[in-house]
From TrEMBL, chain A:
The keyword Protein biosynthesis applies. PROSITE patterns: RRM. The lineage of its organism: Eukaryota, Viridiplantae, Chlorophyta, Chloropicophyceae, Chloropicales. Belongs to the eIF-3 subunit B family. InterPro entries: EIF3B (IPR011400), eIF3B_RRM (IPR034363), Nucleotide-bd_a/b_plait_sf (IPR012677), RBD_domain_sf (IPR035979), RRM_dom (IPR000504), TIF_beta_prop-like (IPR013979), WD40/YVTN_repeat-like_dom_sf (IPR015943). PANTHER family: EUKARYOTIC TRANSLATION INITIATION FACTOR 3 EIF3 -RELATED, EUKARYOTIC TRANSLATION INITIATION FACTOR 3 SUBUNIT B. One of its GO terms (biological process) is formation of cytoplasmic translation initiation complex. Component of the eukaryotic translation initiation factor 3 (eIF-3) complex, which is involved in protein synthesis and, together with other initiation factors, stimulates binding of mRNA and methionyl-tRNAi to the 40S ribosome. Component of the eukaryotic translation initiation factor 3 (eIF-3) complex. It comes from Chloropicon roscoffensis. This is Eukaryotic translation initiation factor 3 subunit B. It comes from the Eukaryota. CDD domains: RRM_eIF3B.
From TrEMBL, chain B:
One of its GO terms (biological process) is formation of cytoplasmic translation initiation complex. Its main location: cytoplasm. The lineage of its organism: Eukaryota, Viridiplantae, Chlorophyta, Chloropicophyceae, Chloropicales. It comes from Chloropicon roscoffensis. This is Eukaryotic translation initiation factor 3 subunit I. Belongs to the WD repeat STRAP family. It comes from the Eukaryota. Pfam families: EIF3I.
Length: 713, 325
């Protein structure tokens, strides 16, 4: 049977002549395996780094060649696994003598590195001391041009002003919101009752966004690494390559960035591997990388928990010393014998401070002071009961212990530093004598005072659960939420009672639906919030007058965030709930300013402000002339408001005229078909009269029944 | 004025229709009995007995003599509005959803659901004033234009066209004599649950699960206004006298139990039609709102909820006096 003819010219067609495309051609479609291929290539590249070049060998004749080779083999196979035929000494063709160096290939790059270190400076005899280098390094060195070439100077490119947002004429604050695939930056503009868009972008980040601690930059997290953005146009400032990065953390002065990723280890029997990179923010260079099993990094919680069982990584793992120009950062670690220690690293060298970690047993956690190089270390009691639990204040870099306290029969300790670093509160829960129940108490350290005096505070009902504890920023007060039921009590205390400087109870609010406390960053005002399960009731409280200013509700509210100035509060419902997603901005008095609904809402982040140090004199002067200033600002607000009103009215007027035009045009359309329309209406046999039906009201009095009854006296 | 609570249905409400004069209204529900009420007092006049499935929608002739109802029991029935007597039954083998009389009442526009491999379809049936002449005559069938359920179909100007809203978020316009697709526009990201047209057939309002309602030019399908709401919407209506619209909806029935009563968002929301701003809510139902309809004189509106109740709300006098500010 003849094959069916298609349009193809079968005649004169030779199958041998067909040129198939190259196998490696991917037709522009990248393969999923590409990453793996690239990974292999890197491996091959590393074959070079398996080779060590040993220099300064004796120059010998052919006859002694084998002997020297044997000696070298003996030396190096002690250090690592030398590749078969992996030893080679070049011989000079003319003199028939060795050239005085040898190549040694090891099984893997790590061994080569070790061999290089160990064999460096090895004395073969009096006049021959080994000089070792990795072949890769030799290559690099020889690739360096002999002559010095001056680097070309690039033209100066003016970068965006990274601090432009601080220069807003009306002193507004910015915030970032993330919902669905959008990330947006807004001005909070409560005077006009709205927020003004600054920048928005879809798919800006693959997991989340984060402001730097002083608000200069916004970080986005991607599969390939992290990026930071800033300036008026939010252009990219720097990127940090870190494959599959999961979490990032800035140093407080925005000098460094710590990023973390974990990956399943290629060996299925081993747990996941973790990589922590500490990078320089300005250059983007990784300065130090910490790698290892993820379980080795999960130390927090103390030794009574078996390693690797903790489940979650404590983040940030590397804690930065605050207010010290990012000089130190520290982490909790375990030494070789499994005991806990604190490793303090020094920047910019990224080395261990004095090459030693702080060896302290049973550390559960440690916390830097928010203002100085001082850390509070909490050690749990030893399992055998010989050592009580202990809290100590350790100064860095001197490592001297300023103060410490032993605590007995402790169940748990929670550490609360005052934001100014002046006080330290320990929330201690202790076992009762029976060991079955526990009760709570507080220990206070006055860090700001000489000799760090200590004080103890016990609640009236010791068994009560402590729901929350919060220090007043820029003040001396704190609030505790305590109680067992759904409506616990809120108690206020001050650290400064008159001249004596003692803790004094200021007052208690009874039975509040509260889960958390949110102090204004300026102190004085407090939001007592019942979040999540408690429907989102918000009580705006003035602690100076012990007076409730307003009680409001943001249904299902999950987050409460004060803006950095303490003028406004944002409450938000994130996508943990299905409905009501979005945010509300309130004044500090509890007035709702505006509300925005956004489906699948993830993050609301006020842009932090950098600390502003005007100096005491200037601050006092402003305080003194506050009235004068406020008058000016009030006038500004007034004009702004009226302007907004005018604009709105204008806009509405436009809409109305537009609509009138629309109706007019439709009327014309209808006029053309009017007769046909009326004909159809008549078809239905029922036509409304042109005039609307007249309604007449007629009062009708009707006597239903008349009955005479005698009233009983 | 206190709202009237009309208790008569045992299952979720699906549709409400006022007659032209606005003195009576018919409510349809998932129980099998469409019910006739006095619109002013809320007194029940009677029910239409005969359907064996949920009734999805209805329409009343201009002279208020006849009612047509479409039901999931695969029938469309014509009733004597006043007596409740069933005049004629169009029988199909697929659930019927949306019905409406043409201007002049010579035809009925019907939509049927997808069922057992039969695609969703729009049909035009012949309607005859004379009961004796009434036959089951299908003038037009369009069954290849909609990928999902057709939620509503309405006549265009002079019965020359008709408009459908579909679950796929599209609004389509067809030539009523040939069935040719004239225009289709993607209006919503999610299902359009209901649409309504103003009395002059100038604009169409849609209500969608994507939490927005849109006002369209009925001729061009141009989106004139968008009303962003905070809940999935089931229904929308245009006030006949003022520049207002009413929207309703709420969390879908399946997830209601997962949140407190207030979170369900079952209120009627009133928006200014031109400024696209919300100016009021009316609470009452304790289930999602399935239907809202303005009375023809614009002085009251009626809502039907998943909770099985019909509520008639009369506006207070200040509603008519107040200017939007």
């Amino acid at each position: 049977m003849e094959p069916e003819r298609t349009g193809w010219p079968w005649d004169g067609f030779n199958i041998e002549e067909v040129e198939l495309p190259d196998q490696s051609d991917d037709y522009g479609v990248p393969s999923d395996d590409e990453e793996d291929f690239n990974a292999e290539e890197i491996q091959k590249d590393e074959g070079f780094s398996c080779v060590v070049v040993v220099d300064n060998l004796p120059v010998i004749g052919i006859e002694k060649y084998e002997k020297l080779l044997g000696v070298l083999k003996k030396i190096f196979s002690q250090i690592g696994e030398v590749h078969e035929d992996g030893l080679y000494m070049p011989v000079d063709e003319q003199t028939k003598k060795t050239k005085g160096f040898a190549f040694i290939e090891f099984a893997n790059p790590d061994q080569a590195k070790i061999a290089r270190q160990q064999a460096e400076g090895y004395k073969l005899d009096k006049s021959h001391t080994f000089k070792c280098n990795l072949l890769k390094e030799v290559e690099d060195m020889s690739a360096t041009p002999e002559e010095y070439k001056e680097p070309e100077l690039k033209d100066f490119v003016r970068k965006d002003n990274l601090y432009s947002w601080m220069l807003d004429a009306r002193g507004r604050d910015q915030f970032a919101v993330r919902y669905q695939d959008m990330t947006e930056i807004h001005w909070n503009d409560p005077k006009t009752g709205t927020s003004e868009d600054v920048y928005s972008r879809s798919f800006w980040t693959e997991s989340y966004v984060q402001w730097s601690p002083q608000g200069t930059m916004l970080a986005t997290v991607h599969r390939q690494g992290a990026q930071v953005w800033g300036g008026e146009e939010f252009s990219r400032i720097q990127r940090f390559g870190h494959s599959k990065v999961q979490l990032i953390d800035f140093s407080p002065c925005e000098k460094y960035l710590v990023s973390y990723s974990s990956q399943e280890s290629p060996n299925p029997r081993e747990g996941p591997m973790a990589v922590f990179n500490v990078s320089d923010l300005k250059s983007g260079q990784t300065l130090r990388s910490f790698k290892g099993k993820l379980s080795d990094f999960m130390v927090a919680g103390g030794e009574h928990k078996a390693p690797g069982v903790e489940g979650a990584l404590q983040w940030p793992l590397f804690k930065w010393c605050q207010g010290n120009d990012d000089k130190y950062f520290a982490r909790l670690a375990r030494n070789k014998s499994g005991k806990t220690m604190i490793s303090v690293y020094e920047t910019p060298e990224m080395g261990l401070l004095e090459k030693k970690s702080l060896q302290m047993e049973h550390i559960v956690d440690f916390h830097w002071s928010p203002t100085q190089a001082l850390m509070c270390v909490y050690q749990a009691a030893s399992p055998d009961g010989n050592q009580p639990a202990r809290v100590s204040l350790v100064e860095i870099p001197s490592r001297s212990e300023i103060k410490s306290k032993n605590l007995f029969s402790v169940k748990d300790v929670t550490v609360h530093w005052h934001p100014d670093g002046t006080y330290l509160a320990l929330q201690v829960s202790r076992f009762t004598k029976s060991g079955k129940t526990s009760y709570n108490g507080f220990e206070f350290f006055r860090v700001g005072e000489r000799n760090t005096p200590m004080e103890v505070l016990e609640l009236e009902k010791k068994q009560e659960k402590i729901v929350s504890f919060a220090w007043e920023p820029k003040g001396h007060r704190f609030a505790i939420v305590h109680g067992d039921g759904a409506r616990p009590d809120v108690s206020f205390y001050t650290m400064q009672d008159g001249q004596k400087g003692q803790i004094k109870h200021l007052g208690t609010l009874h039975g509040r639906p509260v889960t958390s406390l949110h102090w204004s960053p300026q102190g004085k005002f407090l939001i007592i919030a019942g979040l999540k399960g408690l429907n989102g009731q918000l009580e705006f409280f003035n602690v100076n007058d012990m007076d409730t200013m307003a009680i409001n509700e943001h249904f299902m509210c999950t987050n409460v965030d004060w803006d950095p100035t303490g003028r406004y509060v944002a409450t938000s419902v994130t996508s943990v709930h299905q409905m009501e997603n979005g945010y509300i901005v309130w004044s500090f008095l509890g007035q709702q300013l505006y509300k925005v609904n956004r489906d699948r809402f993830f993050q609301f982040l006020w842009r932090p402000r950098m600390p502003l140090d005007l100096g005491k004199d200037k601050e006092n002067e402003i305080q003194k002339n506050l009235k004068k200033y406020s008058k000016r600002f009030e006038a500004e607000d007034e004009t702004l408001k009226s302007q907004a009103d005018v604009e709105k009215m204008e806009e509405r007027k436009n809409m109305e005229t537009e609509w009138a035009d629309f109706l007019e045009s439709k009327k014309k359309v209808f006029e053309e078909i009017r007769e046909e329309h009326e004909a159809l209406v008549r078809l239905s046999g029922y036509v409304e009269s042109e005039q609307s039906a007249q309604t007449e009201e007629i009062e009708v009095e009707e006597v239903v029944s008349v009955k005479e009854e005698k009233m009983p006296r | 004025m206190r709202p009237l609570l009309l208790k008569g249905h045992t299952r979720p409400l699906t549709f409400i229709k006022y007659n032209l004069d606005g003195d009576v209204l018919v409510s349809c529900a998932k129980d099998h009995r469409p019910t006739l009420w006095y619109a002013d007092s809320g007194e029940r006049i009677g029910t239409y007995k005969g359907h064996n499935g949920a009734t999805w929608s209805c329409d009343i002739t201009r002279d208020s003599t006849r009612l047509v109802t479409a039901s999931a029991d695969s029938t469309v029935k014509l009733w004597n509005l006043a007596t409740g007597e069933c005049i004629y039954t169009y029988e199909f083998d697929i659930p019927c959803r949306s019905v409406s009389f043409s201007l002049g009442e010579e035809y009925i526009l019907l939509t049927t659901d997808a069922f057992m491999g039969v695609p969703p379809a729009v049909r035009i049936l012949k309607h005859s004033k004379d009961t004796e002449e009434q036959t089951h005559e299908e003038v037009l069938l369009v069954n290849d234009a909609h990928p999902g359920r057709i939620t509503r179909a309405m006549w265009g100007r002079l019965n020359k066209t008709f408009v459908t809203s579909c679950e796929d978020g599209l609004v389509r316009k067809f030539d009523a004599s040939t069935g040719k697709l004239l225009n289709s526009v993607k209006i919503h990201d999610k299902s359009i649950q209901m649409m309504d047209m103003d009395r002059d057939q100038n604009t169409i309002i849609t209500a969608s699960q994507d939490k927005t309602s849109k006002l369209l030019d009925a001729d061009t399908f141009e989106v004139l206004k968008t009303y962003q709401c905070d809940r999935p919407l089931n229904t929308a209506a245009i006030s006949p006298i003022r520049d207002h619209i009413a929207l309703g909806g709420g969390q879908d029935a399946a997830s209601v139990t997962t949140s407190a009563g207030q979170a369900g968002k079952f209120e009627v929301v009133l928006y200014h039609k031109l400024f696209m701003e919300m100016f009021g809510t009316v609470r009452g139902h304790f289930g999602p709102l399935n239907f809202v309809a303005f009375s023809p004189n614009g002085k009251s509106f009626t809502t039907g909820g998943e909770d099985g109740y019909v509520r008639v709300h009369h506006f207070d006098s200040d509603y008519f006096e107040q200017e939007f500010a």
